[in-house]
Specification:
Layout lengths: L2 H18 L3 E3 L4 H5 L8 E3 L1 H8 L8 H6 L9 E4 L7 H14 L15 E2 L5 H15 L4 E5 L1 H13 L10 E2 L4 E2 L4 E3 L6 E3 L5 E7 L20 E3 L2 E8 L12 E3 L3 E6 L19 H9 L19 H36 L17 H13 L1
Parallel strand pairs: 3-4, 3-5, 5-10, 10-12, 11-13, 12-14
Antiparallel strand pairs: 1-2, 6-7, 8-9
Helix pairs in contact: 1-5, 6-7, 8-9, 9-10
């Protein structure tokens, strides 16, 4: 057996032993949704007061109070965690799930809605995971996020390529509650209320840490040899994390192949490929939690005040948490703005005709009146 693989197995077995210890209102049903063969109930949007509070947030500077008092009450994207390698690594990514919950993220939006697992295997069908992305977005109106570790990071990028149609021209929706693919390759976009194919749907944020290197030895990832470091436009923002001299994970640096914003972050060489996501206990220390919440990418970060155990994980955890908060906010605001743009026009179309003027069907406006209504709404 490859000596590096022996080392990995020993480390992950050891790690598994250590780790073992506001009102809402539904959107109105669109004609497209009503006629779609498998259309779900429409997503819900916050009431007007919460909408105002969400729109007042600055996505680049989300505080702990913003999370606890505002974001948790609004639309929340699903986070799909992808663990890396053999099964004993699974508890390590579960530790990151605990971290997210302790930082304020709703547990129900992390666990799989079918089997309630914390994370997904890198050996699962990437087309299935892409189908879950489509299924969840159709129901919530907020695009999911993906966080991958080691082989799970490679799998996250693979899902992005699946959504871009780089493996198959059509993808089916996957229902995780029923545990099966649906007999359709389209969804009703909850923001436009129009039918669209699964291929082309994007996630809001994705990241990979320690992806590459020895993970290419696995046959299920051979198709990624020429794709791993190329990020398609099926993600709004992607962050790739690399550890210098990481034999198991390589030194992957990523570039965009489309419109995605791509960042590359080099972690300290003292970081462990295996244990980077083992951060579940970090929020329990008030000083560490405050440091994480104050973190902003690109700035100088003084870690001298942090305890020794935090120094092995905190930069990765803080950077990912920053991006999660940012895109949590952006997605909630995106849904609110889409609803606000839709409702005034719908109301104008239901307005009664004037007393004077040519007769026409009730509730219908001519072209000039439609244009005037839209101009007035935009001015408001």
């Amino acid at each position: 057996m490859n000596p590096n693989l022996k080392t990995l197995i020993a480390l992950v077995v050891a790690s598994s032993l250590v780790l073992a210890g506001c009102a809402t209102q539904p959107l109105e049903q669109s004609q497209a949704a009503a006629s779609h063969p498998a259309a779900p109930p429409s997503p819900v949007v916050p009431d007007r007061v919460l909408q105002e509070r969400l729109l007042a947030l600055d996505p680049d500077h989300i505080t702990d109070n913003d999370v606890q008092q505002v974001l948790v009450h609004g639309p929340t994207p699903r986070i799909m965690l992808l663990y890396g390698g053999i099964y004993p690594v699974k508890p390590i990514m579960q530790s990151f799930g605990y971290f997210l919950v302790r930082m304020g993220y709703p547990e129900s939006r992390i666990r799989d809605p079918g089997d309630h697992e914390w994370s997904y295997s890198p050996y699962e069908d990437a087309a299935k995971l892409a189908g879950i992305v489509a299924w969840d977005y159709e129901r919530t109106g907020v695009r999911p996020m993906m966080i991958g570790h080691s082989q799970g990071g490679m799998q996250a990028v693979k899902v992005l390529h699946e959504l871009a149609g780089h493996f198959d021209r059509a993808l089916r929706v996957y229902d995780p509650i029923e545990g099966k693919f649906e007999d359709r390759t389209t969804i009703v976009d909850p923001l436009t209320h129009r039918s669209r194919p699964v291929v082309g749907i994007s996630v809001s944020y994705a990241s990979a840490v320690g992806a590459g290197g020895a993970t290419f030895l696995m046959p299920n990832q051979w198709s990624m040899v020429d794709k791993l470091q190329s990020i398609p436009d099926t993600v709004a923002e992607f962050t790739g994390f690399a550890i210098p001299i990481d034999i198991l994970g390589g030194d992957s640096h990523y570039e965009r192949h489309g419109s995605a914003k791509v960042r590359n972050v080099d972690l300290p060489p003292t970081y462990s490929h295996v244990f980077v996501p083992a951060v579940g206990s970090l929020p329990e220390e008030a000083g560490v939690r405050a440091w994480i919440n104050a973190y902003v990418p690109g700035e100088k970060h003084d870690t001298s005040s942090l305890p020794p155990d935090a120094l092995l994980h905190v930069l990765w955890a803080a950077d990912v948490w920053y991006s999660i908060k940012k895109h949590w906010c952006i997605e909630a605001q995106r849904l609110v703005r889409a609803e606000r743009a839709r409702v005034p026009i719908a109301s104008a179309e239901r307005a009664p005709p004037p007393i004077d003027g040519p007769r026409r069907a009730p509730g219908r406006l001519d072209g000039a009146e439609r244009a005037a209504a839209r101009s007035e709404n935009m001015a408001q």
